[in-house]
Design a protein that fits this description.
Layout lengths: L1 E7 L3 E10 L1 H5 L6 H11 L10 E6 L10 E9 L11 H4 L3 E5 L2 E11 L2 H15 L11 E6 L6 E9 L2
Antiparallel strand pairs: 1-6, 2-4, 2-5, 3-4, 3-7, 6-8, 7-8
Length: 166
């Protein structure tokens, strides 16, 4: 695992499907929503994307921090900011598609490679450990964070976890 500070020079628009959850809810299989979100994304939208297109998991609308409070997660793909959010001709599938902006700014990036979803869970674990360490050099913004699935591989591949920092 490696982490580096990266400056995102311009905002990135992403469209996809969204849920609101908490980290506490994600601990239990009965209350977890993220697995079902990604399963629905894979079933209804991933096939409509170009092969190898990058996929994004965008975390935003934080109620507070990572210990308490809800947040929204959007399983998504990059779009032109003017583009209407739709990944298929099926109006029913597109009706619940939302668009979110990843703001330009400074991010601490944690990179992992391997079998999903373990790889992304490992990246988040490393990020939480880093930010909860008393000697942590950076402060999280709790504005927008995102997972960048390189080449759109949701089964095996590289994920870069971008955590917004001040």
């Amino acid at each position: 695992m490696s982490s580096t500070v990266k400056e995102l020079p311009q905002a990135v628009a992403c469209s996809g499907i969204s849920v609101r959850t908490t980290n506490n809810a994600e601990i239990s299989h009965d209350t977890a929503k993220l697995g079902r979100l990604w399963q629905k994304f894979y079933q209804t939208h991933a096939a409509n994307l170009a092969e190898g297109e990058d996929i994004y998991g965008v975390y935003h609308n934080y109620e507070s921090d990572d210990l308490v409070g809800a947040f929204d997660v959007v399983a998504s793909w990059k779009v032109d900011s003017e583009e209407k959010p739709s990944s298929s001709d099926n109006a029913a599938a597109a009706s619940n598609v939302v668009t979110v902006q990843i703001p330009a700014g400074k991010y601490l990036v944690f990179s992992e490679e391997g079998i999903m979803p373990n790889t992304v869970m490992n990246a988040w674990e490393k990020a939480w450990e880093y930010f909860h360490d008393s000697s942590c050099e950076h402060k999280r913004r709790f504005d927008v964070d995102f997972e960048h699935y390189i080449d759109g591989n949701l089964e095996y591949g590289q994920v870069d976890l971008y955590i917004g920092i001040e």
